[in-house]
Amino acid sequence: MVYFWLAMTRTANKVLTNEDEMLDDVVIQTDSGNEFSVGEIKHSNRLLKSVTPKYTIDWYLKWFSSLVVLAAMSIRGIQELIYWDLILSIIGITGWLAVSVLWKDRALILLNGVGLIMFINTLFTKYLFV
Questions:
Q1: pLDDT tens, 12-59?
Q2: Phi and psi of 91, rounded to 5°?
Q3: Where in the chain are the domains?
Q4: Are 3 and 17 in contact (CB under 8 A)?
Q5: How far is CA 88 from CA 66, 72, 91, in A?
Q6: Whose CA is closest to 99, among 74, 116, 123?
């Protein structure tokens, strides 16, 4: 039997079973303003729900940048395409750096900032200032 926890107040919890339908119409509002009914949560087949908002500028930039980074990774082992791998990586990492700044996520800012510096250093030393 699957159990779900419902936060009734900040200090009290109630355990609901799948057969318990008394509270299915109760709506819970999250800290971010999203509203879910108890029934929706209880009967959902999804174990994890996305916490990032959809269809915002950071959502589009995140997905575009991810696709560009994947494209760069897919050509990384081809000797003739190393320059294009570098260009695509710089574009993708720059996009992810912008997303991390929008999210104010210091770990992602550090990761993508250092990665961008390394890619740009390689671009200048290997291709532009030969």
A1: 466 656 566 677 788 888 787 878 777 777 777 765 667 778 899 999
A2: -65, -50
A3: 4-42, 57-128
A4: yes
A5: 11, 5, 5
A6: 116
Distance of CA 112 to the CA centre of its chain: 14
Task: Specify whether the CB–CB gap between 112 and 100 falls below 8 A.
Answer: yes
Residue 14 has a pLDDT of 63
pTM of the full predicted structure?
A: 0.64
3-class secondary structure per residue, the chain: CCCEEEECCCCCEEEECCCCCCCCCCEEECCCCCEEEHHHHHCCCCCCCCCCCCCCHHHHHHHHHHHHHHHHHHCCCCHHHHHHHHHHHHHHHHHHHHHHHHHCCHHHHHHHHHHHHHHHHHHHHHHHCC
